[in-house]
Amino acid sequence: MPRELMFEVITADQASEKILSHWQLPARLERVGLRDTWNRILSEDVVAPEDVPGFSRSTMDGYAVNAEDTFGASESLPAYLTLRGEVPMGVKPEQVIDMDETMAVATGSMLPQGANAVVMIERTAKIDDRTIAVFRPVAPGENILEKGEDVGANQVVLRRGTLVRGQEMGVLASLGITEVEVFCLPNVGIISTGNELVEPEKTPSPGQIRDSNSYTLYGAVKDAGGQPHLYRLVPDQEEEFRATILKAVEENQVVLVSGGSSVGTRDLTLKILNQLGELLFHGIAVKPGKPTLATVVKDSSGTNTLVIGLPGHPVSAFITFRRLVEPLLKGHLRELLPPACVYGRLTKNIPSQAGREEHVRVRLISQGEQVLVEPVFGKSGMLTSLTAAHGVVTVSLEAQGLAAGSEVAVKLFKEL
Amino acid sequence: MPRELMFEVITADQASEKILSHWQLPARLERVGLRDTWNRILSEDVVAPEDVPGFSRSTMDGYAVNAEDTFGASESLPAYLTLRGEVPMGVKPEQVIDMDETMAVATGSMLPQGANAVVMIERTAKIDDRTIAVFRPVAPGENILEKGEDVGANQVVLRRGTLVRGQEMGVLASLGITEVEVFCLPNVGIISTGNELVEPEKTPSPGQIRDSNSYTLYGAVKDAGGQPHLYRLVPDQEEEFRATILKAVEENQVVLVSGGSSVGTRDLTLKILNQLGELLFHGIAVKPGKPTLATVVKDSSGTNTLVIGLPGHPVSAFITFRRLVEPLLKGHLRELLPPACVYGRLTKNIPSQAGREEHVRVRLISQGEQVLVEPVFGKSGMLTSLTAAHGVVTVSLEAQGLAAGSEVAVKLFKEL
């Protein structure tokens, strides 16, 4: 029987569903200071303890007025208001504005009591030290940011699952929230195995190569918002391999086993993972990436850890990681946006076999306003076909390829 | 004269060009270990010291052969080869393959001398311990990765200016390069100023607000690949303000002055920056973001530092940072890709005035296969209009708005 029929192949979508129905990224939490919230995911709703702004503020340089006093004002028939001084920045004005009175305000000044709008300085003229002419009417609320208009007290201002960008840090700062609870970065163990592998700092003997998958995955895990942990290289020796997997299962939420691509290594990985946990699937209809397997293994406390056996070829390991593992690591995000893509015109035909999802490496070429999408063909063993590529074009399970000249979406490996 | 005509407004593109023609991000370099190369930009070409792989390897499980021996082989008329044993993984085979001989190989095995191709195990049958039947011919080079096929010795394998992703780490590892030279993260000083501002941990008095711009910019600088440095809040007091700017100029390559939005603060910023350095521009035709100014200030060693006065409104400061400063911080990258965008259908009309470039905050709504793009309208003082948004749609200088229903590109604030 041909080897390829020996494992039951499922689609990438089915593989994702199998993982999600048997395992969920555990929600480990930690508190971090404001500056360390960057790029983290909130694990609690943030409720505003107070209004922002805490008082009505001018959004323009000009004059605080009672809007009614300006109704009907025009160039030919200005409204004349009595100037009652200036509101100093950062200070509460003691003065109360009465009918036909005004105070000078700067952008950000607190509005004096009695005022409900601001006239831009450009729409006024100072007649004398005590008199301002207003040439245009303003509506109540015009040119001011009202108390609580940005954030209302007791409002949920940031939801659990929000990715903290600069603007979320700004909101936290504006509310005086200097510490917040976030999800811990998921720990991802990376184990490379195979008798032919040596560490990067070693010189390989003939027949040996350096382990590159560990480092490719290290970077890919970081990009996906995880914390990678590299384990020492394991030869194809059952006891040592099992011990390393068990150690990694204790120390991580996800374990990636990769490296050796020989049938011996694959069989050993399958055998040990089958003994240690529950096999979810073995084989996916993705090119490259077919010989991927997933198991769920319990650690000593009974907690499930996901252990994924990635294909040995570097390109296959990387593409499979992106397709199956990366979405898991982002699982605490409240919303997953449609992936950011660059669109462009395909320069060559991409042939593909229906019945498997194909991820084709491509590079982008800017040509004036146009973006050309150039397939980077190359064996799955060639890491440089990944460094030459900016991302992938996906040919769906049903499609039989893509025609040169067609407009395609490129999912980037990393946004610049 | 209306205040808005008091400064000479230039377009955002002109502003970018002015900056670039007067200032370049200095190339400070450092050496980092392999694991720390992630997300850094290479400052030197990386030349391969050796071939990868260092020997011809099998990419399949099967039998190493001399391709000529399989020519004409078929199901009905197989080629029979003499099995000379198995190549152990990670070891150089001592055996030499002669005419009509073969050795068993696994994926990744070194090819024995005399072999130039591999027959997949599925295309063979083992007749007895010494005889293999081959049912299909292979071409020379088939199912092998030849010595130096991924990387050739002395080849420039990664160029100066490359952003290191996982796959670049993998290439470095495969070459045994465990240390490499990268550009230092650009130091970006952030100064907030304004009498109305207090630090986030303080409780503002009436008329005061907490400084949020510093933290919004902190995150934005991190996203752009810079190293932010926050300075203490400065009141609108000339001596202290000047001293803080001079300190920041010594310690950074770029300094952002932001915070206070009052005319007093703006005038003070302009006055001091005009005294300290060369004013490049004051006022850009961007909404929001008009009152932006840029100067180049020499530090004590005569090195130029770029000092940008950002608008005080949080939304304006953020958008201006993204438009003018972010591209500078990425300036060491060899290539800037077209920005990754999500495309979708606009739900509402966006009005805009020709003659200025408008950046409209939008949020994405997934609706089945469709992506809807919903404008988030809101005053520039409302930080929550930024937290509610996923990115911006840009209305160009010439356009007079965008119509509901049209397909637009959303430049994301951050890719998920």
UniProtKB/TrEMBL annotation, chains A, B:
- State the top-level EC class: transferase
Question: What Pfam families does the record point to?
Answer: MoCF_biosynth, MoeA_C, MoeA_N
Q: According to its UniProt record, in which pathway does this protein act?
A: Cofactor biosynthesis; molybdopterin biosynthesis
Q: Which domain of life is it from?
A: Bacteria
| Sorted UniProt keywords | Magnesium, Metal-binding, Molybdenum, Molybdenum cofactor biosynthesis, Transferase
Single GO biological process annotation from the record:
Mo-molybdopterin cofactor biosynthetic process
What EC number(s) has UniProt assigned to this enzyme? 2.10.1.1
Cofactor(s) this protein requires: Mg(2+)
This enzyme catalyses:
adenylyl-molybdopterin + molybdate = Mo-molybdopterin + AMP + H(+)
Endpoints of the signal sequence: none
- What molecular function does GO assign, one term? molybdopterin molybdotransferase activity
- Which cellular components does GO assign to this protein? cytoplasm
Q: Which residues form the MoaB/Mog domain?
A: 189-331
Q: What does this protein do?
A: Catalyzes the insertion of molybdate into adenylated molybdopterin with the concomitant release of AMP.
Q: Which family does it belong to?
A: Belongs to the MoeA family.
Could you identify this protein by its name? Molybdopterin molybdenumtransferase
Q: Which species is listed as the source?
A: Metallumcola ferriviriculae
